[in-house]
Amino acid sequence: KNSEGSATAVLEYCQTLGEALNQSIQQVDKLKKQMQYWKDTAEKLSKVEQTSKDALLANFTKLRNTMVEKHRQELEELKMAHEEEKKSWNASASKHKRPRRFENSPDDLVDLGDDGKELFEKETVDKLAAGYATTPKQRKPILTATKAFDFVSAMKQGQQDL
């Protein structure tokens, strides 16, 4: 009888151990399924985020290119208007004459140095009277956008290089 009792106890122990093991396996399977669900969700959200970024970057690129083109057109219009205005300045400057009160006595206008020679050449005085500078100014080059830039392709290329 004793050996039957111990065999029954061992059998009960094995059954209890098997049930506990089955429960553990089921819990692990359930956790794996939950982990896969969250992993799939994270991947979907990542794809949605990337799509949103791409769309935003494409819209920004389109807006930037539109604004660059508009800027270029407005700059051309301003340059043309400036050239027209400049022509009218040249025309009015060439018509510039001395006031009548000085025409009778031009010698009164000449500045003489200590040595009795004129300080300024007649050409320089005429330029200054017409409103021109006597020395040309150095102009700094203006930076302008020369072509459109595709940010989306650049970003995708950068991601592929990683």
Largest sheet: none
Q: What kind of assembly state do the chains in view correspond to?
A: single chain
- How widely separated are the two ends? 74 Å
- Tell me, briefly, the overall form: rod-shaped
Radius of gyration: 45 Å
% residues in beta strands: under 5%
Q: Helix/strand-derived class?
A: mainly alpha
Topology:
Blueprint: H1 2-94, H2 100-103, H3 122-129, H4 151-161
What attributes does this structure have?
4 helices; 0% strand; mainly alpha; 162 residues
What do these coordinates show?
With 162 residues, this protein is an all-alpha fold. It has helices at residues 2-94, 100-103, 122-129, 151-161. The model has no long low-confidence stretch (mean pLDDT 78).
Give a quick rundown of the structure.
The protein contains 4 helices and no strands. The chain has helices spanning 2-94, 100-103, 122-129, 151-161.
